[in-house]
Design goal:
By secondary structure, this protein is an alpha/beta fold. The chain contains 13 helices and ten strands.
Length: 288
């Protein structure tokens, strides 16, 4: 691809870059603002759980962010009891699938949806858990019903809901979304998760899920050499995600959403986010 074509990809792309708030590991809103400032980016995807779980510390987050000119582009919430120690532990505990945590998750989800509406958000993401691949599987209808009412809860508040990728292949996720047929339900596409979970080539997956993709995470990873174990998350540009091809493919599928840097490992988060920003900028300036 020549430089002229790369430059044609630029346009408003630079205005669509954001950072996941949890990647900065802030203990309070002031730390979030300070560390975000160090990245040079003033747009975030905000973790919503702290805002209702610890209102004494996080209750004024939106006001403080607005005062500093920080834009909240989307929200995120987690589910109760999730254990990411191994692939098997997250399969057993992830998302809204486990019966033992469903009641607490359902209560939190309703609170989160109302909070997101009150914050003026339009899009929220989460990991639903490992989706059953066979409609005849015992848990298929249970999870479809649960995800259906979660989607309805967000839709009733004017919100789009995005499922994180990785815990199933793109084809399996596409089949599930098609069968569920919820107009406000889409995908937050994370290319690194496809690699971390060993669920296929991220570029092919992006093409498969293209019409459903509402937001993407900029995160990189190395594939595992031992099947059944995690791959390794690494700083953007040092893993197996082909970033130039990734952004070219986003353009080709007509993607118009936000590109949000996520870093969930390592002890130099701000530096790694700056690295991801440079990768993003280079891909859109023709320098790589």
């Amino acid at each position: 691809m020549n430089e002229r074509r790369l430059m044609s990809m630029n346009g408003n792309w630079m205005e669509r870059l954001a950072v996941c708030s949890w990647s900065l590991q802030p203990a309070n809103p002031d730390e979030l603002i300070s560390r975000l400032s160090d990245t040079g980016i003033k747009r975030i995807q905000l973790a919503l759980d702290p805002l209702h779980e610890n209102q004494a510390v996080w209750g004024n987050t939106a006001t403080l962010l607005a005062r500093e000119g920080v834009t909240i582009v989307s929200g995120m919430f987690g589910c109760v009891g999730e254990d990411y120690t191994t692939l098997e532990t997250i399969r057993a505990t992830g998302g809204i699938a486990p019966d033992a945590t469903w009641d607490r998750n359902w209560k939190n989800i309703q609170t989160t949806a109302s909070l997101a509406r009150d914050l003026g958000l339009s899009f929220v993401t989460f990991h639903a858990g490992f989706l059953p691949h066979d409609p005849a599987a015992p848990d298929y209808q249970k999870l479809a019903d649960r995800l259906g009412i979660v989607a309805e809860t967000f839709q009733s508040r004017g919100l789009q809901l995005g499922l994180e990728t990785g815990q199933e292949t793109a084809g399996e996720l596409l089949d599930f979304l098609t069968q569920l047929n919820r107009p406000n339900l889409g995908v937050n596409f994370d290319p690194a998760n496809m690699i971390l979970y060993g669920k296929g080539d991220p570029i092919a997956a992006l093409v498969t899920l293209g019409p459903w993709v509402r937001q993407v995470h900029i995160k990189d990873a190395l594939a595992t050499i031992l099947p059944g174990t995690w791959g390794a998350e690494v700083a953007a540009g040092s893993g197996h995600v082909p970033w130039l091809e990734f952004f070219t493919t986003l353009k080709s599928i007509g993607f118009t959403g936000n590109c949000v840097i996520e870093r969930e490992a390592g002890a130099q988060r701000v530096e790694d986010i700056r690295t991801a920003r440079r990768v993003f900028e280079q891909c859109h300036s023709g320098n790589i």
